[in-house]
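queue> pop job 88
queue> type: inverse folding (structure -> sequence)
queue> payload:
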């Protein structure tokens, strides 16, 4: 397969990023703030997504971009494949309903296509996924947010300095085994059981462009990908100038 020509950033240009499985744009917004122009792709209708996006199957869209050579318009790819397969939270919560752990694993086919692009990339997944390579783990407390929201990131074709995991200041607010616990963080998943209101979720996550609970609970805080995007652009700029990042 012919590899695409990588686009180098020139003065005044913003490199273009492909945001696969984009949901409502938590990841994409962080990258946009870091300095990218963002295009999304999601199989669901996402009217709250703040950037141009293609509605359709993310892997089929990526395969088509590779086949046509259009992937060469991009400098970087972020992918957040659905996390239900093998996710400890999903399995434990839904085992009694008979469907936890039955979802299709999209991480491996996503990685295979991303490798075929020849582009640097990120695959984002939550804790509890044994099959992902954990090159980077980020937590809301690292950015002063009101959520813990641990997320692991696999980096393809580039590296990043791993930041120290900042100690948590207390518990996540909500019910555990019938007992209510208070704390400085909200639980960014589910509904009921002491879960936060939509405005509380928006404030805790740093997301103000959607008020759909499902989108908020599936999102990652933009601060995470702003950190990743800034690190990538800084590293690439240093490489092009022939100096250490």
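queue> result:
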């Amino acid at each position: 397969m012919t590899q695409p020509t990588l686009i180098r950033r020139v003065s005044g240009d913003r490199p273009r990023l492909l945001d696969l499985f984009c949901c409502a744009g938590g990841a994409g917004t962080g990258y946009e703030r870091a300095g990218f122009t963002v295009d999304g792709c999601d199989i669901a209708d996402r009217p709250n997504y703040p950037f141009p996006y293609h509605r359709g199957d993310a892997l089929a869209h990526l395969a088509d971009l590779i086949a046509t050579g259009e992937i060469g318009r991009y400098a970087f790819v972020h992918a957040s494949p659905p996390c239900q397969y093998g996710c400890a939270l999903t399995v434990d919560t839904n085992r009694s309903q008979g469907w936890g752990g039955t979802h299709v694993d999209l991480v491996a086919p996503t990685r295979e296509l991303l490798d075929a692009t020849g582009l640097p990339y990120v695959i984002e997944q939550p804790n509890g996924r044994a099959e992902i390579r954990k090159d980077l783990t980020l937590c809301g407390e690292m950015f002063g947010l009101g959520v813990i929201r641990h997320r692991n990131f696999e980096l393809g074709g580039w590296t990043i300095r791993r930041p120290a995991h900042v100690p948590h200041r207390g518990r996540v607010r909500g019910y555990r085994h019938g007992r209510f616990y208070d704390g400085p963080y909200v639980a960014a998943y589910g509904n009921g059981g002491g879960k936060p209101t939509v405005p509380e979720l928006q404030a805790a996550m740093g997301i103000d462009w959607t008020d759909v609970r499902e989108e908020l609970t599936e999102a990652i805080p933009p601060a995470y990908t702003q950190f990743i995007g800034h690190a990538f652009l800084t590293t690439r700029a240093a490489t092009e100038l022939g100096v250490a990042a």
